[in-house]
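To close the section, here is one more complete example, presented without commentary so you can practise reading it yourself. The ligand is PMT.
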Amino acid sequence: MAGPLAEKHVVLGVTGSIACYKALDLASKLVQAGALVDIIMSYGATQFVTPLAFRSITHRAVVTDQFNPDSEYSVEHVALAQQADVVVVAPATVHCIAKLALGLADDPLTTTIVAAKCPLVVAPAMDGNMYDHPATQANLATLKERGVVIAGPGTGRLASGLSGIGRLLETPELLGHISYAMGKDGDLAGRTVVISAGGTMEPLDPVRVITNHSSGKMGYAVAEAARDRGADVVLVTAPTSLADPALVKMVQVRTAEQMGEAIQEHVKNADALVMAAAVADYKPATSADQKIKKSEDDLNISLAKTEDILKSAKGNFVRVGFAAESENLVENAKAKVGSKKLDLIAANDITADGSGFGSNTNQVTLIDRDLTVEELPLLTKYDVGNRILDRVKELFRD
Ligand code: PMT
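Output:
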């Protein structure tokens, strides 16, 4: 199994909040992502959900007792701390956050955290007033200063029935924070990467657009891969149905023109631009203010060329394009390396099974500015992103 969590040891600390039920889903998704998950529950957490529920998901012993004579480890908290690639506390109560800020170690979770050297993610969940309390804010600031990744909380309906800040983040956002925490000092730390995604929408009138089949999955996957290696990521995206990746700066656009403007603005200080978006080459020459009415006659639409974003983007950064091709893959992609002055192109055979638009996998051939060709196998889009970023990293050295 590939992905940032595959075969990683995750210690998931669960403390006493009604949001404990969501930690079951987080544990399940971590296991599905290939992680080995050790659960440590506070006494409060065991009042909301049972250790058996977690054990049934992780297939591993759940730690609830500091002094368990039957533990498989001689010194449990030290053993778990040493194995861990990341420790996550979700949900984290006000009380647990205060203990962590003070460095207290009076239960299995806090002793493990004090003994651990790996990244720590703390996901608060509490009533809004408890979150706003100056002590809580000061404790969270202390943890942040120490390099702890604070995930959330989100805003919305709280268990009390009130609405406000204090909700535990949803599982996908928590997974994003966990991957980020593990990779934040990675090989792209200190680099800014601008990525485009999705299919632009060129309006014909207020109702109709010219667009294409891009789902955005490829661009979003490159963005997540870059984030998980420590890069600051700006994702300029045309409309998609995908959730925003956590800890990525999102810039929403619709048309090729808007995408071009946003790219130019953000690429000024960037180290690399990866254009995975399917940008319209042509747009309606005019866009009607009112809905075009049906008539007895055919309708001819005149199309105007859009500006080539990759070609016209100004600045000193590594330029990576994609080439969506349905024939003469390598030949057509090589021509684009020259015409768009690219450092690298990912030639994408959109006719191959499991490749191109909408799929979770992709098969690309990388071609660099010397026209050297490297054919990659069918990979997840996240792994394609990583293979591209490996090459981008080499180009930084050049
Ligand atoms: O989004 P998914 O469903 O995951 O699908 C992924 C994908 C098939 C869209 C993606 O892998 C892909 O191939 N993206 C590039 C699609 C494309 O527009 O190819 P192109 O050959 O038309 O353009 C070549 C390059 O120039 C691309 O990097 C494109 O972003 C860029 N371009 C194109 C037109 C334009 N006006 N400005 C540009 O910068």
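Once you have examined the tokens, check your reading against these statements. Residues 214-218, 256, 275-279, 281, 306, 308-310, 321-324, 336, 340, 348, 350, 356-358 surround PMT (CB under 6 Å). Residues 381-397 form the longest helix (17 residues).
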